[in-house]
Design brief:
elongated
Length: about 130
């Protein structure tokens, strides 16, 4: 019986070795891509800061929400209306019914970053003149 299954066993071992190598290779590629993603996110954040507007403020609010462990929703810039944002739930759907507390929380954070100058552009028209 052992003689009959030895071919199956060696085929299994060869396939297992090949799949393990492939898994390690893909894990390394994922790690490299995640590093690139982090660099690109930072670059986007810096460019958004230079531009100002709702996108910069929304990004700063999302970073604060993530750092504090809040996972109920996040904000994203509105796709068709400039300088507006949408509240998106964990599943990616636009939230329609927010509680009064959530509305106040978002309004407070938006005001907080607005006062800090997240809305203001780094270079004004007067500086260019």
């Amino acid at each position: 019986m052992a003689f009959e299954t030895s071919g199956d066993r060696s085929a299994y071992d060869a396939e297992d070795k090949k799949l393990s190598a492939s898994t390690l290779q893909k894990a390394a590629a994922i790690k490299k891509l995640n590093g690139s993603l982090g660099v690109l996110k930072n670059e986007i954040r810096e460019l958004s800061d230079e531009m100002g507007g709702a996108a910069s403020t929304v990004d700063k609010i999302n970073v604060l929400l993530q750092k504090t462990g809040f996972r109920g929703f996040q904000l994203r810039p509105h796709a068709s209306v400039p300088d507006k944002y949408e509240v998106v739930s964990e599943d990616g759907e636009v939230s329609k019914g927010l509680s009064e507390g959530e509305k106040n929380f978002i309004a407070f954070l938006y005001f907080y970053f607005y006062v800090q100058g997240a809305w203001a552009k780094k270079t004004s028209l007067r500086e260019k003149l």
